[in-house]
Specification:
This protein is of the alpha+beta class. Helices cover 36% and strands 17% of the residues. It has two domains: 80 residues, Arc Repressor Mutant, subunit A; 49 residues, Dna Ligase, domain 1, CATH 3.30.1490. The protein has a three-stranded mixed β-sheet with strand order 4-3-5, with no helix packed on it. A two-stranded antiparallel ribbon has the order 1-2. Helix 3 crosses helix 4. It is globular, with a radius of gyration of 17 Å. The N and C termini lie far apart (36 Å).
Length: 140
């Protein structure tokens, strides 16, 4: 997903979000960095460019994105909430050494799972933890 600023503005409007400068920059940051940021990460990255930005504004903007279904919240650790713009079904892998969070493609057929027969699935979250290739290479 790559947009120009005008495209981001249109995208936000199409999803019921008034495209203020701060909202545009927050969306653009997540899109361009794809680092599954926390509120603090976004705030630290943008506060020099937007002196009036507050952590509360970042938090409220992210909640609005979630409400309008243009972002997902990721909670792998109890004390760490991250955000993702990829809305399609996918999983996440978190490196326990460097903290990097990676998207992973999944192809799971929930229809063939007997335990879920007759159930309505409203959310899907698959999280894996381990040591990433980079950290594993540094060990060897």
């Amino acid at each position: 997903m790559r947009f120009y600023t005008e495209d981001i503005s249109t995208y936000l409007k199409e999803h019921g979000v008034k495209p203020s400068y701060q909202r545009l920059k927050i969306f653009q940051y997540i899109m361009e960095n794809n680092n599954h940021p926390t509120v603090d990460t976004i705030y630290r990255a943008l506060c020099h460019e937007i002196p009036t930005l507050s952590k509360t504004t970042v938090y409220n903007t992210l909640n609005l994105f979630i409400e309008q279904k243009i972002a997902n919240v990721i909670v792998i650790e109890e004390n760490e909430t991250r955000y993702d713009l990829v809305m399609g079904t996918h999983g996440h892998f978190k490196c326990v050494e460097c903290g990097k969070l990676l998207d992973i493609d999944l192809d799971i057929n929930y229809d063939s799972c007997e335990e879920l027969d007759g159930c309505d699935i409203t959310e899907k979250h698959i999280y894996l933890k381990g040591i990433c290739c980079d950290c594993k290479g540094k060990r060897n």
